[in-house]
Amino acid sequence: PDRFYGGIVLAFFVAVIGSALFGLLVSGLSVPGRDDTHLAQALIAVPGAMIALAILYVVGSRADAAAGIDRSV
Questions:
Q1: Confidence tier at 20 by pLDDT (50, 70, 90)
Q2: For the whole model, what pTM was predicted?
Q3: How far apart are CA 8 and CA 64, in angstroms?
C-alpha cells in the first residue's frame, strides 16, 4: 500500500532531490566535470534516493497511524 507522505508523486520528487543532494555531498559539494563523470558517478545517487524514500515512508506511516488510517489490504 502507498504509505508515502504526499503520495507517489511527492515520493518521486523526494527521490530526485535526495539523490542530487547525496551526490553533491559525496562529491564534496562540487559538480564533477564532463571528464570525471562515469557509471560510478550515476550509481552514487542510488543510496541518496533510497534514504530519502525511506524517510518519506516512515513519515507517511506515522501520519497514517496518528490519523487512525489503516491501509492494510
A1: very high
A2: 0.81
A3: 15
